[in-house]
């Protein structure tokens, strides 16, 4: 049965066309999120504990979203609605001065300025299908990056590596398992014996395959794909595309970074064995995306 249309109001403002920024770990989501989050009238959350709990519940057990679509949509909407509430205690622009208990629960003076909302929490990509159900008018911006550079960055990131610990790698619960990039019984059986570099590559492969399916399911009016390597030196063009797609007044200056881009860093950061392991599972996707 078709679900009734939802109406979500946050800080007295109706939420229309929320924007979600997606990508594999270390794919450049944070750079796009920074630019969108600094656009006038745009509030973009990232990493709210309630949102992460809901996102990971769906991301690591995608069958939940299929079996309980209505309940999952409500779970996600409630989590984002709470994270988008701007009060003196949650607003990043409020000075942090003491407020009364009554004022702490009321919208702050910046709340009325937020007319658009979105999120760029880590691993949001793995809940994209559920997000489409929860927010039928949502827009998605996904970022693609060379899987070899992604694997190199993941290998240096303790937070990324933590997912491979036995207590967190619930590879026996779901098949296929996009979060860990496992798609067959053979891959699941072999998983405990794989190198960490291979596991990183599997997560990237699973992410780009999800991204490809999204491109097939959503039209250009709902989904925008950016290549990480194309952002640098084309900040003006990227900002224009983001403005056209989201309606947010994104500044090209917010896309400029003085930090090292990390493009091609895998050449010095991956050992020969690690590079071989990455290519062993991701070679097809690397070639398809032009990373040869």
Automatic annotation (TrEMBL):
The main enzyme category here is transferase
What's a Gene Ontology MF term here? transferase activity
Q: Where is coiled-coil annotated? A: none
Q: Which InterPro entries does the record match to this protein?
A: P-loop_NTPase (IPR027417)
**EC number, UniProt record:** 2.8.2.-
Statement: the UniProt record of this protein carries the keyword NADP: no
**Which keywords has UniProt assigned to this entry?**
Transferase
Q: What is this protein called?
A: Sulfotransferase family protein
Q: Which organism is it from?
A: Nocardiopsis mangrovi
């Amino acid at each position: 049965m078709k679900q009734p249309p939802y109406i979500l109001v946050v800080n007295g403002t109706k939420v229309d066309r929320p924007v979600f920024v997606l990508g594999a770990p270390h794919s450049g989501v944070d750079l796009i999120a920074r630019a969108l989050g600094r656009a006038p009238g745009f509030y973009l959350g990232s990493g709210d504990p309630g949102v992460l709990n809901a996102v990971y519940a769906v991301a690591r057990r995608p069958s939940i979203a299929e079996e309980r679509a209505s309940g999952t949509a409500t779970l996600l909407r409630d989590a984002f609605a709470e994270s988008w509430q701007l009060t003196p205690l949650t607003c990043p622009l409020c000075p942090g001065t003491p407020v009364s208990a009554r004022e702490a629960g009321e919208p702050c003076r910046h709340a009325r300025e937020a007319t658009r909302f979105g999120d760029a929490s880590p691993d949001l990509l793995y809940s994209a299908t559920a997000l489409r159900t929860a927010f039928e008018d949502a827009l998605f911006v996904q970022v693609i990056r060379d899987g070899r550079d992604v694997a190199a960055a993941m290998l240096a990131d303790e937070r990324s590596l933590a997912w491979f610990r036995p207590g967190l790698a619930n590879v026996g619960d779901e098949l296929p398992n996009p979060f860990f990039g496992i798609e067959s019984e053979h891959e699941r059986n072999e998983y405990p014996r794989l190198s960490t570099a291979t596991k990183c590559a599997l997560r990237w492969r699973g992410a780009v395959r999800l991204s490809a399916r999204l491109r097939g399911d959503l039209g250009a009016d709902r989904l925008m794909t950016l290549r990480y390597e194309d952002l640098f030196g084309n900040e003006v063009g990227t900002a224009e595309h983001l403005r056209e797609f989201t309606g947010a007044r994104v500044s090209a200056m917010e896309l400029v970074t003085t930090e090292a881009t990390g493009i091609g860093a895998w050449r010095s950061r991956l050992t020969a064995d690690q590079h071989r392991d990455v290519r062993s599972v991701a070679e097809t996707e690397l070639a398809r995306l032009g990373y040869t």
